[in-house]
Write a structure and sequence with these properties.
Radius of gyration of chain A: 24 Å
Oligomer: heterotrimer
CATH class of chain B: Mainly Alpha
Shape of chain B: elongated
Strand order of the largest sheet of chain A: 1-3-2
CATH superfamily of chain B: MetI-like
CATH topology of chain B: MetI-like fold
Structural class of chain A: mainly alpha
Order of helices and strands of chain B: HHHHHHHHHHHH
Shape of chain A: globular
Largest sheet of chain A: 3 strands, antiparallel
Strand content of chain B: under 5%
CATH architecture of chain B: Orthogonal Bundle
Strand content of chain A: under 5%
Distance between the termini of chain A: 8 Å
Radius of gyration of chain B: 22 Å
Chains: A mainly alpha, B mainly alpha, C alpha/beta
Number of helices of chain A: 16
Chain lengths: 410, 296, 324
């Protein structure tokens, strides 16, 4: 199968899958026994308010009409209205999402780093005590509930030692504001807004493109290039959704990720504070997730290290680090990449619990809050968002894998 | 061969099989260790009414001064309602075990037949079900469970249903891959050629060979169910307050952390880990026994 | 006697398997002078490959070198630290593996293999210089220089083996060990590869150790032969001595089983029986169950290695007197 046909078929496959997902969520929220509106109000105190809510949310229409509205709304990016104050769920989600994204990225980095490091170490000392200890570590980390681990860290580092904060995203008043570019004249048109944002997005895009096309052997550069390209494509895409805003006389570029924004702003204190608050939650989530990577790396490396070309490389006198990381690992890396994509779903799930534990203002905590408020339409919107996000991420990972494996390209 | 004969022969294989586990090396010991842990916890929960020093439910409020650290009278301390934590830990596993067991039963009842029929019949039906299962499988488990649990409400059954809904695709996939490989084997063809009914073939020939994989998935399911149940409770979708439950203790104990009260969450947490670990070890050991890894 | 380049004394390699200990290489000793070619001949399981790997200390676990000395230019290689040994590999001694299909890194271009190798041992050389050397070497082994940008899977087996040879000689090692370099290739290519090895050896004045199960190849292309059986060295001599006077019954059997294309009709004479299970060696001489000249003493004691004429060693009770 050629690369092109694979890409096309993979993208085409995503469409029905997302569709099924959306339908399942709809069925769960609207069709399962339990009228969401009634559940929201619990006691039948005010029939008028109930009816009003129904009308406002469009829940009084027949089921098929509701389904159609739901789907067409999604195409426009509308995830519904909150039961609490009828505000747009999409807006709430998009403002809460960067926090979760930041947590997810750092947790994944930690999980993969720990996983690879321990996995390689284990494969080097096969069946010796170090190997057994690492395998035990991998199994135990899986069995620990992530919120329990989080709370343990809070006790040790937050309460007893008082080194790190136990909640929140950063010190109040230390929220980064990103890069501000003052403009001599306040630009009026929406077009100017869009144009400037796109230009801002083209900068990383060119960087990514260059990296990708470089005649380099280094696989890391290619992956980096690909990711940057994806990132800038998303940036440009989201330009219209208000992530870069223009107010009186200035263009503001902010990602919502505190670490990045504080660097954009050039304020290292804010950067340090953001990291301080980010450390425990991502360590917690990263540790729990690392077990899978330890196991995968270990078994892959073990098989690869026994291959002939590795012994041949050793016979040429190459250094051990070169042999392990340049030879064995390069070939074992691709499954790790796929696993990263697969684990993204688990990552989001774990993020919900981690955010609740650490009062991290992200999408996870948003869902939990909405549950406590019995805001079912918001819950539906959030679940849909998660589902689509996971599908898209796994699509990207699959495509990246296909691009990187030279054997598929034939 | 009648159904009863098949079941009897399966049992006859399993029982001496278990005794020989000790001779199967590391994997066998893992299974034994895991099973021992799980069995001890189950037994502890079952006899809890007789062995807990104090009443762990709301009737046992204020048996001691609230928020006392572990000491000789209360080895695990007391919580904010003055309840003895040791008693609560001893009796707290019940909910989780019930939820896990129920979810596995539901999965078996739904997932196994579905997997068997779908892969055996094949065709459009199979492809559609596959697509649905893949979509659900790709979805983050906890989130789906949250969505379902949020709509259904609190309670053991509802938690079990949400977990089961998330896990059925795993069973489906495993069974399907097994069935697809067995389906092509000569002895199935032979059975078909002597006119055996599809139902007979499925249950008497294919099913027994699929059982080992089902067992492995089920143990992993148990472990996950424990952790998911704890997670759901933590979010507030668990059970009512009165019944002692480890997950509830974790949720409750969280509020007490800033004041330095560590004992309310630590002990129930450790037991959750032990229970999940027990199942995981069993799962690891079983999967290695059934599909030995290369190079061992 | 000219000063020997490589001297191996009592080299012993054991594998520790769950079922027991296996001596894959049992007290092998020999020496090799500069530009000489040694042929190590034996059946599968005789220990010849392990012997080759032990010379560069790459015996895979659970194997371990438990005894012996390997003297190269006055230094015992077995006593070196791992990082010092690493510098020897590829540079002073290089190794050509049996299967060219799996010996090259699938995700690296051919040129990258060379650059990496050269720069590991001579860090001062730039990438361009290394590539130039590589291209020249490719020409020497008969590969078009443009192939330097190809990936291994784009080349045939014979070409890959030529590349392995090129990689083995690019740093001008004193000794090249070739482990069954032609077994995985078809017959026509085999001859070409062996010729190439000879050319290269002459051109660069290298010493070659050729490990093979095919005695005819060894007889044709080597100066000395070392015959191995079940881990033991059973005969070791110059080629002319082996032609004239093969002493060990196993060697004689091997010679008899070489088909002769000039004879019109020939019955292929195989050696009866099969190699022993190394975990369950027969008592006494390891070869006695298959030996037509086996005597009482052969079943009871292991024969020691003796020098029957200058430079001709054999391990058999048929030779030497009891007084020695």
């Amino acid at each position: 199968m050629t690369l092109r046909s694979y890409i096309i078929s993979r993208i085409l496959l995503t469409i029905p899958m997302i569709f099924i997902l959306l339908t399942i969520v709809f069925v769960i929220v609207r069709v399962l026994p339990g009228d969401p509106v009634l559940l929201h109000f619990e006691k039948m105190e005010n029939p008028q308010a109930i009816e009003q809510m129904r009308v406002k949310l469009g829940l009084n229409k027949p089921i098929w009409v509701q389904y159609f509205d739901y789907l067409s709304g999604l195409l426009r990016g509308d995830l519904g209205k909150s039961m609490q104050d009828f505000s747009s769920v999409s807006e709430q989600i998009f403002s809460a999402f960067p926090a979760t994204l930041e947590l997810a990225i750092f947790s994944m980095i930690i999980a993969v780093s720990i996983g690879i490091f321990l996995g390689v170490e284990a494969s080097k000392s096969y069946n010796k005590p170090k190997d057994h200890a690492i395998r035990v570590f991998g199994i135990v980390t899986y069995a620990i509930p992530v919120f329990f681990l989080g709370m343990v860290y809070q006790i040790i580092f937050g309460v007893t030692l008082r080194w790190l904060p136990v909640g929140g995203r950063t010190y109040p008043t230390m929220e980064p504001v990103g890069l501000k570019i003052p403009l001599t004249q306040p630009p009026g048109a929406f077009a100017a807004h869009l144009l400037l944002s796109c230009i801002a997005g083209l900068v990383p895009a060119t960087l990514g493109f260059i990296l990708l096309k470089m005649k380099s052997k280094k696989i890391t550069r290619k992956i980096l290039g690909f990711l940057i390209l994806i990132f800038s494509a998303t940036w440009i895409l989201l330009a219209g959704l208000g992530w870069h805003y223009i107010s009186m006389g200035e263009l503001r570029i902010a990602t919502g990720l505190y670490t990045v924004d504080s660097l954009l702003e050039g304020n290292l204190y804010k950067f340090a504070e953001a990291l301080r608050y980010l450390f425990l939650p991502s360590l917690t989530l990263g540790l729990v997730l690392s077990g899978v990577f330890v196991r995968l790396t270990r078994s892959n490396m073990f098989e690869t290290l026994r291959l002939d070309f590795v012994t041949a490389a050793k016979a040429r006198g190459l250094k051990e680090t070169t042999v392990i990381y340049g030879y064995a690992f390069r070939n074992a890396f691709l499954p790790i990449l796929t696993m990263m994509g697969l684990q993204f779903a688990a990552l989001l799930a774990g993020a919900i619990l981690t955010e609740t534990t650490f009062s991290w203002p992200g999408l996870g905590r948003y869902i939990v809050d909405r549950i406590n408020f019995r805001d079912y339409t918001a819950i539906q919107g959030a679940v849909v968002f998660f589902g689509i996000l996971v599908s898209l991420v796994s699509l990207v990972v699959d495509l990246l894998y296909a691009y990187l494996d030279p054997r598929i390209r034939l | 061969m009648n159904r009863l004969g098949v079941k009897r022969s399966m049992l006859a294989r399993i029982v001496p099989g278990m005794a020989s586990l000790t001779k199967r090396g590391l994997a066998g010991w893992l299974v034994i260790l895991g099973a021992a842990i799980v069995a001890s916890i189950i037994i502890m929960t079952l006899v809890s009414p007789w062995i807990s020093p104090y009443d762990p439910s709301t009737k046992g409020i204020n048996v001691g001064k609230p928020l006392t650290p572990p000491n000789s009278q209360f080895p695990f301390g007391t919580n904010d309602l003055g309840q003895d934590m040791l008693s609560r830990v001893i009796s707290g596993g019940g909910i989780m075990l019930q939820v896990a067991l129920l979810s596995v039963v539901i999965c078996l009842l739904v997932g196994v037949p579905l997997g068997l029929f779908s892969s055996y019949i094949g065709g459009v039906f199979d492809r559609t079900i596959c697509l649905v299962m893949d979509s659900v499988y790709a979805f983050p488990g906890l989130i789906l469970a949250i969505a379902i649990a949020a709509m259904l409400g609190r309670g053991v059954t509802n938690m079990a249903l949400s977990i089961a809904a998330v896990y059925v695709p795993s069973y489906f996939r495993v069974i399907r891959s097994q069935v697809l490989s067995i389906k092509e084997m000569p002895y199935i063809e032979a059975a078909q050629s002597i006119g055996a009914k599809s139902r007979t073939i499925l249950f008497n020939y294919i099913l027994p060979n699929v059982v080992p994989s089902i067992v492995v998935v089920a143990t992993v399911n148990f472990a996950d169910a424990i952790l998911t149940a704890a997670g759901l409770t933590f979010i507030g979708l668990g059970v009512e307050v009165d019944i002692p439950d480890w997950g509830w203790d974790l949720t409750n104990g969280r509020r007490l952390l800033p004041s330095g009260v560590w004992w309310v969450i630590t002990f129930p947490g450790i037991f959750i880990i032990l229970l999940a670990l027990g199942f995981t070890l069993m799962g690891e050991g079983l999967s290695e026994l059934l599909n030995p890894k290369l190079g061992e | 006697m000219q000063k020997q380049l490589l001297t191996v004394e009592n080299l012993t390699v054991e594998y520790w398997a769950r079922r027991g200990k296996v001596r894959a290489v049992d007290n092998v000793s020999f020496s090799l002078g500069k530009t000489e070619t040694l042929g190590v001949v034996g059946e599968s399981g005789s220990g010849k490959s392990t012997l080759g790997l032990s010379l560069i200390r790459l015996v895979p676990p659970p194997g371990r070198i438990v005894n012996g000395h390997v003297w190269l230019e006055g230094i015992d290689l077995l006593k070196l630290r791992e990082d010092e040994m690493r510098k020897v590999r590829g540079r002073k001694i290089s190794f050509i593996f049996q299967d060219p299909m799996t010996s090259l890194n699938p995700v690296k271009k051919i040129g990258e293999h060379f650059v990496e190798l050269i720069r590991t041992h001579e860090p001062k050389i730039s990438d361009e210089e290394a590539l130039q050397r590589a291209e020249k070497l490719l020409e020497d082994v008969g590969i078009q220089p443009e192939r330097i940008n190809d990936y291994p899977h784009q080349l045939s087996g014979g070409m890959r083996q030529r590349i392995m040879i090129a990689l083995a000689i690019v740093l001008n090692p004193c000794i090249v060990i070739a482990d069954e370099p032609t077994t995985a290739l078809d017959v026509i290519v085999q001859a070409k590869i062996l010729d190439l090895l000879k050319d290269v050896q002459n051109k660069y004045a290298m010493t070659l150790i050729l490990i093979t199960h095919d005695l005819s190849i060894a007889m044709e292309r080597c100066d000395k032969i070392l015959v191995m059986y079940a881990g033991h060295m059973v005969e070791h001599a110059y080629i002319k001595d082996i032609y004239r006077n093969p002493q060990h019954p196993y060697t004689q059997g091997l010679l008899r089983s070489i088909p002769n294309i000039e004879l019109a009709e020939q019955k292929l004479e195989a050696i009866p029986g099969s190699p022993p299970d190394l975990l369950n060696l027969p008592k006494g001489c390891r070869f006695w169950p298959r030996c037509s000249s086996a005597m009482e003493i052969c079943r009871k004691t292991e024969p020691k290695l003796i020098e029957t004429e200058p430079g001709h060693f054999v391990r058999c009770f048929l030779y030497g007197d009891a007084k020695k």
